[in-house]
Records
---
Amino acid sequence: MFSLKRFVESNSLRSIPSNYICQKNEDDDSMLYLYDAQNIPIIDLSNLISSHLDDRFNEIQKLGDACRDWGFFMLINHGVSEKLREEVLRASQCFFDLRGEEKKDYVGENVFDPIRCGTSFNVKVDKTLYWRDCLKCYVHPHFHAPSKPLGFSETLEEYVTKINEVIGELLKGISLSLGLEENYIHKSMNIESGSQLLVINYYPPCPKPELVMGLPAHTDHGLLTILIQNEFGGLQIEHDGKWIPVNPLPNSFLINTGDHLEILTNGKYKSVVHRAVVMNKKAARISVATAYGPTLDTIVRPAPELLTKDNPITYRGIKYREYIQLQQSQQLDRKSCLDRIRI
Ligand SMILES: O=C(O)CCC(=O)C(=O)O
Ligand SMILES: [Fe+2]
């Protein structure tokens, strides 16, 4: 199994292989960089679940605004310990440090394989290769994770159990922010048995980081993605036509809206376009993203309660499973997958 990490380490690379060199388009350069990252919304989970109704109401309002105006926010006071988050990142490093043969069982071909290890995005369709290795595990409704290194699976299981509670509260808040009943998204999207995909991204150090891309501009499938990273930055979100580098607040989660929240809300809450650039010549960046979706057989369509004469239906319904297949079978390209189901 090819691993970019191993390739970089074994070659003490000085130049970048040409198939990794990313053609930056002019658009991109004119969008770089607006450093107003301090405006990124911050949501306080302790307010969202507060018994003080005023605090709760205000935070729900802020959450709705963040989803509508940014599709992205940092979550603080979420109750998940820093120790556990650090342990997830440390164990992830140990997984990528395993020898190739210890990972060979996870060379998945199929997008629905419970555990898959790979490189770039989809080497069958990528025109340029991306500067990352990754591990993808479906962790819900059934939990899957590699059995090595020792303790890795247990750490991931503890982590996903904890963030499940966090996402549950966020989805309730989002339902309320839309004027819907608190459990609307839970019920209509079958969240209790919904699909959760954990993706660990490993971006090795690169001698010429400006020439490569970790992950190109894309949106995530699912309703919400929750992300943590090690100490190195690289995530950028598109906002008002500019790329905004994200520097997370200490101990915060980075949350972004996904395509299925855009579909469900008939475009009110847009899924945010984002990318991961590579910035580090000496050290690897690790990020752990967990995408929350409905069950694979749920047909996601705009909520009828949100449609009016002035807000007619904009997306056709599509099974979550088919949408994932569609997204994984083509190049990652901004919102191209969502565009295919726009009416
Ligand atoms: O590494 C990051 O910060 C972003 C990862 C990402 O966008 C993804 O896994 O979908
Ligand atoms: Fe993403």
---
Amino acid sequence: MQILTPQVFWAQRHGEIFLRVELSDASVRQSDPTATSCGLTGAQGHGAKGDNQYEFSLEFLEPVKPEIHQKSTQRQVDIKIRKQDERWWERLTLREKKPLFLAPDFDRWLDESDAEMELQAKEKINKISVESRVRKDPYMGLKKGYLFMYNLVQFLGFSWIFINMTVRLFILGQDSFYDTFHTTADMMYFCQMMAVLEVANPLLGLVKTGFFPAMIQVAGRNVILFVVFGCLDEMQNKAVVFFVFYLWSSIEIFRYPFYMLACIGTDWKLLTWLRYSLWIPLYPLGVVAEAVAVIQSLPIFDETRLFSVPLPSALGHSLSFSYTLQLYLVLMFLGLFINFRHLYKQRQRRYRSRKRKVH
Ligand SMILES: CCCCCCCCCCCCC/C=C/C(=O)SCCNC(=O)CCNC(=O)[C@H](O)C(C)(C)COP(=O)(O)OP(=O)(O)OC[C@H]1O[C@@H](n2cnc3c(N)ncnc32)[C@H](O)[C@@H]1OP(=O)(O)O
């Protein structure tokens, strides 16, 4: 019996080869696939020249995986082969001259860029279906609602402080420096007490923030606010209060709205940039302003003996709290280093992942 070659149509994607063999009602035996070739042997079916035995073999341009999916239907034989490496082939066969029985399958045909778009769309659908399969946290809405409200309250509080100080600066000029504490301290107390939640939030798994950087930030500010300014009347009308409060609030009026938008899955480019860039000048300036406040408070603590630790008479009268603050000054710069590194990494991570998303 004469053995004929069937008409074979082909198309490709980055990861697969599709072959459509024009053989109806075929009983097909697949030739043993190798890493670089595939075909059919002894296929009995109805082809272009009627009922007959058909076979073909193709030597591929690049290696393929040995497992082959083959399906014989009333109209045709479909063969799907996976490529060894997921990349676009410039042609199907090793030999540049295409065999006469081979033609493009225009029903499946895509050029490289269309196939890439199809791949991206598939990946997107897969991602969505995986996400929807992951069990939803039943308290997600509650958590997001709480975080949104927290950030909103902090945003309003710090905006009030910032606007109040800016307006007073315009109206009173330098004179406004000296009564910053009396006009804004209550609101600052409120905001900074609330900020303790920022240490609790990562512990409760509500946000991905590192516990340690948040603790350094909140504890560092609260020592300055409640101990250095809050406990010493003499410090409260010093100009340094203005600079400390102004630097704190300048970052927070951008950080909290950024978090608010994150809670509702939104991201404004400019706001994100401000949140991840403003700290570069503001954080060191803030720590310098805080250090000036601590240094100015040292003689006052020495004089007033506030928080001094009584010592046995052989060792002297008492140990001034200013020694603790001198140690704190060293910790401040250590804290600055830790948080500066943390914020730098956060910035890198944010912009690296965004770049990856764009490409
Ligand atoms: C006895 C005491 C000892 C202590 C000794 C310590 C010494 C202290 C020295 C240090 C002194 C510091 C004093 C401070 C001075 C100043 O503040 S000066 C002014 C300038 N300051 C700043 O710029 C700092 C601002 N602060 C911060 O950025 C943070 O507080 C941080 C903890 C330092 C870092 O923020 P972090 O949250 O880690 O980074 P993010 O990238 O923003 O967040 C991570 C992810 O978590 C999400 N998230 C975080 N919080 C919230 C929230 N409230 N609501 C919703 N979502 C939140 C955020 O969206 C991120 O998610 P992804 O984007 O999905 O990653």
